[in-house]
Amino acid sequence: LDLHYCISCSLPSAKCGALIGHKGETVHEVQRLTGCEVAISKKEPNEPPDAHRTVSITGPLVAVYAAHMILMRHYNDEEARFQAR
């Protein structure tokens, strides 16, 4: 039961800034709440507008899925705000 799990997903690079939060506050909060490690790949220089970045979440199984749910909820909330403009 002490195993660590990792899930990864690919998200549009243009949306990752909102997911990370100001100075990483969203990622830090998710890590604090769940005890998971959240890593988001760096933005590539001169990347095309449709580029994607990898989000990886590592930790105990239930915590990994809790962190994923929190991040995706934040992502979807931000996307809804963007679409409402």
Radius of gyration: 13 Å
Q: Could you spell the SSE succession in H and E letters?
A: EHHEEH
Query: How many strands, which pairing sense, and closed or not: the largest β-sheet?
Result: 3 strands, antiparallel
Extended strand count: 3
Envelope shape? globular
Strand arrangement across the biggest beta sheet: 1-3-2
Helix content bin: 40-55%
Low-confidence stretches: none
Overall structural class, as computed from helix and strand content, comes to: alpha+beta
Structural features, described:
The chain is an alpha+beta fold and 85 residues long. It has 3 helices and 3 strands; from the N terminus they run E-H-H-E-E-H. The protein has helices at 13-20, 25-34, 61-84; strands spanning 5-12, 37-40, 52-59. The protein has a 3-stranded antiparallel β-sheet with strand order 1-3-2. The longest helix has 24 residues, at 61-84. It starts with a strand and ends with a helix.
Would you spell out the secondary-structure blueprint of this structure?
Elements: E1 5-12, H1 13-20, H2 25-34, E2 37-40, E3 52-59, H3 61-84
Antiparallel strand pairs: 1-3, 2-3
Helix pairs in contact: 1-3, 2-3
List keywords for this structure.
85 residues, alpha+beta, 3 helices, 3 strands
